[in-house]
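Why do we bother with holo predictions? Because pocket geometry can differ from the apo form. Keep that in mind while you read this record for iron/sulfur cluster.
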Amino acid sequence: MKTKPMTVTIREGPTEWTEWWVREPRSAHTTEVPSERHLQCVWYDPMFHPPNLHTAQNEPVEIEHPGQWNLEAGPDFLGAVVRIGHPPRRIVGDVEVHVHPADWLRHAHREDPAYSNVRFHVTYFDDPPMEVPGAIWIPMRSALRSWAGFTFEAIDVTAYPYAARSKVPPCAELVRNWPVAAQEEFLHRAGVERLRSRAAQWAHRVAILGVEEAVYTEFMAALGYKRNQAPMRWLARRVPWSALNSECEGDPERAYALLMGVAGLLGPTRPEMAPPRWIWDLWWKMRARWEACALSRSTWHLDSTRPLNRPELRLRAAAVWCTRSPMPAWEWLRIADESPSHWIEQIVQTLLISDPWAAGAARRVLGPDRAAAILVNVVVPFLISQGRLELDDARWMEALPLEVTNSIEREMAYRLFGPDHPPSLRRSTLRRQGLLHLFHEYCLVDRTNCQECPIVPWLKKAQRKFAHMAHDPNPLRGIPTARP
Ligand code: SF4
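The structure, written out:
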């Protein structure tokens, strides 16, 4: 006998939707609602791939490669390889995992370009239908429930993604046997490659935009780290540095009003993020000229963004920094000829910004950690591109401050050197840059589950050279780290 359906309407976020799963009478299985993390573990670990997985259109699904577990903003897995249908079509793309299909809308992924390569929308529940353009919907509940013995309780979510890595990748099989000095040298060279390629991008950027606009745009993007980089870039395009300065004539208050107005961030907000009252007076005077190009508030990632990373605060730093005269980039170029310890310290000082409108004690809106990150990722490649720093000069490389560690770098160190690698491997800015380079250059674009990764033959060649040059203090010398 059918039980009368019960519906629960959830009002959360911009959409209102009905959670249909509670229509069924509760059983041991229906009460087991997994977390998103549990579902990510199921997708990631072959041990938990259910035997009868199907798409919502009832085509068989075989997960050839679950993709790279993405520890940054964006889809949950990058570059998955999945075989769909019979005969199978091999499809490559990113994966987004949700408990409920409608979480796609609730989490505002539809408007976010970072999700444009999502080809698989993996959910637990299979109702109500939710169309994600370009993506194949794979609901997992039926397959998991019909798999005898499966229970979410068997999954240790704290073990993922590091400890549960199922196999050692081929690059790691090689470098884990190397002496620590060789491992350090390998990472250092990869770091140099990252700086080299970033400097080349900078040279192009400066040739097109000029120094001020290029530095301003990249500075704004760096302020958006890590969830609002794209909106910050869009804002910099809509309010270019030249327009900002002619409109505001070096006045940070007007610059803040203009940036907040064009950012679309002057609407209702949390009390602690409310802009000063004077901002409205200033914005009203400029509004007619700028309103047409204003962004929407929904462009920004505001939920679950830490208060210090909120765009409302970061734009305070932008307003102060961008109205300095002369533009700080010219100061960087001037002082880069001094000794490394001196210029590095001086440039960091140009990046430390306190909130001029904070009530009470001045609070930093750009502190030492972010300043170090901007120095390494924006200023240094810019200076290399302008011929102020040499890539074979160890003096400034060794003097660079350590950036705050990030999840990609930790993941890459784990992937390459295992859980017990010496911490000294990551105690160098260049080596950290090297880990990022390896991830972005090789892992992120790999679609072959490491089988055709071009770094592997290169490492084998380096290893042979290594064996035959046992008495050479630097056997990795001269070996390029760039993609062959
Ligand atoms: S893609 Fe390449 S660099 Fe990344 S883990 Fe696989 S073999 Fe290593």
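The pocket of iron/sulfur cluster is lined by residues 169-171, 415, 438, 442-443, 446, 450, 453, 455-456 (CB under 6 Å).
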